[in-house]
Amino acid sequence: MVLHPDVQTRVQEQIDSVLGPDEKPTYALKTKLPLVEAVLLECQRMYNVIPLSGAHRATENTKLGGYNIPK
Fold first, then answer.
1. Which UniProt keywords apply (predicted)?
2. I want to staple 1 with a disulfide (CB 3.0 to 4.6 A). Which of 8, 9, 19, 32 is the partner?
3. Is the pLDDT confidence value at 22 over 80?
4. Residue 51 clears pLDDT 80, i.e. is over it
C-alpha cells in the first residue's frame, strides 16, 4: 500500500462507505468490500506468511551447471 497510495485511498473510501464510523467489520460484509478482499488476496499471494512447500535441500550430492551441491 505504501507503493500505491491511490489504492490505499480507495480501500479506505470503500471501508468508510460500507462500515461507517461505528460499525465493525464482519464476515457477512465481505461481499460488500470487493476491493478490500482483492487487496488482501493480493497481499497473501505476494507475501505468503505460511510456507506451502517443504524445506528445499539436496537429497544426495550432485553437480548442476558446473556447481557441486552437497547433500
1. Iron, Metal-binding, Monooxygenase, Oxidoreductase
2. 8
3. yes
4. no
